[in-house]
Amino acid sequence: MDSKLYTILKPQEIQQEIDSYNLSNSTRPPIVILKKIILNLTMGNSQLIKYNKIFSFICKIILKFSNNEGVKKLGMLIMEMYVSSTFRSTHNNNHNNGKEKNDNLDIELEGLLPYLIEEARSSPPNINALHILGSVDIGCMSLQLLKNYTNSLWILINEKLSCEDENEIFIGFIHLSIRLIQKIIKTEFNKELREDKIQIIFNKLFKNLIKFNNNIEISSAISETLINLTTANKYPFLKIELTIFHVSKIISMITNLRSNTLISGDLLLINHFNQIPSLLTLLTKFKIENSNKSLRKDIITCVKPFMNDNDVSVIMNSIKCVIYFLDGINNNDKHNNDINDEEFNFKIAIEIIQSFNKFFSNDNNKIIKEDRTIFFDCLRNLILIIIKFGKLFKKHNYNDSVDIDIEIFQILIEKFININEEIDIEPYIIDTKLEILYLLSIEGIENKLIIEILFKLIKSSNNEISYKSFRTLGNLIVKENKYLYLMDSLIDQISINKNLLVISIFIKDLSINSNDDNNNNNNNKIINKYINKFPI
């Protein structure tokens, strides 16, 4: 075995071996040289990337021994690593100066293009060829050659996305469409033609989403690709938007999937419900301002049954989708004080709270005990609901004419929001729960229960929980005059040594807050009473 096979080599050493091979006129493929290059690239020998002669050699070897599977596999892997590394270094480190242009590789890379397209078109497609076609960029070739690659890739993707047979639509082509769009933007300077090409790809992807909706692999891949393309902050240069037509089709798909799962076997149910989360996320990429109130209500009505499912991903994505479109009704129609809209919003928001209660209770509180990241995501969405619809909760809480089970908040607070010192050890969970208690109390929901909980938490042996609970209750007193009566009880129950700093900070906050014209003289009385007791 060659002792240098697993050794970091200088580019000159590899070049010497290449020169020796070329001079030998050998008819045998240079497998050992290819392995050395792969190992050096894998071990982080980035010096090789700057030496075009090495990769020029690889291009020639791939074409010369195109029928040799070993050479094809090794050579394509090297080229994939080369174009990927060059792309990253060009954009991140900007190492490519006038002295190290890659124009010298254009001839070899242009000769390799037909072979790459042929390999990508084969059945099954050559994965490495797809990766190379997707990764090539200005960092490894001239703009003109990149345009040639883009045009060839455009023809290939168009052809594959137009297939009527789902067996010919390889998932790699779907994912590659994003890279193709990025290349079109860089190489097509005719704005109208550029936008037409991008729209054609988008339309074909969506058409296939509908056509092959029974194929879980294809539909999920297309959904994820469409989500990427319609996420504005991810590709701000794209002007791709979902229309009402797209939304209506997605709703039909979701409705059909739900109907099928209700009458089908377990396996089909699992497959279909794997599709639903991505479809729900895709719905949220539809711009609220492009919709009307009726459409938003239809979407919510279609989606909300999934909030009571048993699948975590389905539940979370359905809740987020409902919140998104419910917020649209809440914000976009401020000029319309239709009591029916308010009732609709209130009932749906209550259903969301109920679904959280049910979700948290599933499998003996499994989410709370084990899936802490998901639980945290739930808590953040609860905050969103309280902020957006807290006033509706408060209004209906005191309206005896409305028949609603307000005990859902009591259940939510006592069982799931109250801090469990044995389970809630993460600071971000503790902070989020206290924020929820604070927001609910501000809106006048279960005030008495929340105050009792906070006073108990202040006595906690856990200094962090005690401190943060004191701070939360103090913030309530500062924010709402109706809680000023709690000040005496708060101070009396605090261990002065443990919370002296907290109390000092709190009184400072109260002093600043007392300058607000909206506060009454009670603030000044409290300050005068405690100002001399604690150092400030």
Per-chain topology:
Blueprint: H1 11-24, H2 31-42, H3 52-64, H4 69-92, H5 106-121, H6 127-135, H7 143-161, H8 171-187, H9 191-211, H10 216-230, H11 244-263, H12 266-283, H13 293-303, H14 312-332, H15 339-369, H16 372-397, H17 407-417, H18 427-442, H19 447-458, H20 463-479, H21 487-492, H22 496-513, H23 522-530
Low-pLDDT residue spans? 94-103, 263-268, 398-403
Q: What would the principal axes of the Cα set say about the shape?
A: elongated
Instruction: Report the sheet-strand fraction.
Output: under 5%
Sketch the major β-sheet. none
InterPro entries: ARM-like, ARM-type_fold, GATA_zinc_finger
Kindly list the characteristics that best describe this protein.
536 residues, 23 helices, mainly alpha
Structure description:
The chain has a domain at 1-141. The protein contains 23 helices and no strands. The protein has helices at 11-24, 31-42, 52-64, 69-92, 106-121, 127-135, 143-161, 171-187, 191-211, 216-230, 244-263, 266-283, 293-303, 312-332, 339-369, 372-397, 407-417, 427-442, 447-458, 463-479, 487-492, 496-513, 522-530. Helix 18 packs parallel to helix 20.
Short précis:
It is built from 23 helices and no strands.
